[in-house]
Amino acid sequence: MAKTDLLQGTLDLLVLRILALGPNHGWGISNRIRQMSKDGLTASQGSLYPSLHRLELGGYVVSEMTPSENNRKARVYKLTAAGRRHLEAETENWEQFVVSMKRILQGA
Fold first, then answer.
1. Which domains does the chain have, with CATH numbers?
2. Which of 30, 72, 75, 98 is deepest in the core (most CB within 10 A)?
């Protein structure tokens, strides 16, 4: 499968899903998206960090600077309770969207 660019809303949903697994930094989120999609999806830094910023402004994630393994600072993002609720609602919306798209694409 060819790598696919992600749409803004889709990327936000994927970021929330990755953070539901636990706190992570930007590179880790991007890497996890690639791994979980078996290299089918990628999130560029130019898309990922604006997504994280939007989610933080919306109150869905919080971040803090923490020391990394190599004694450098890394911004780590964590899902909030509001983010968890938003993830559940958006996952349901996405699943309904997929069903509708399948109906159209299969001509039903």
1. 8-105 (1.10.10.10)
2. 30
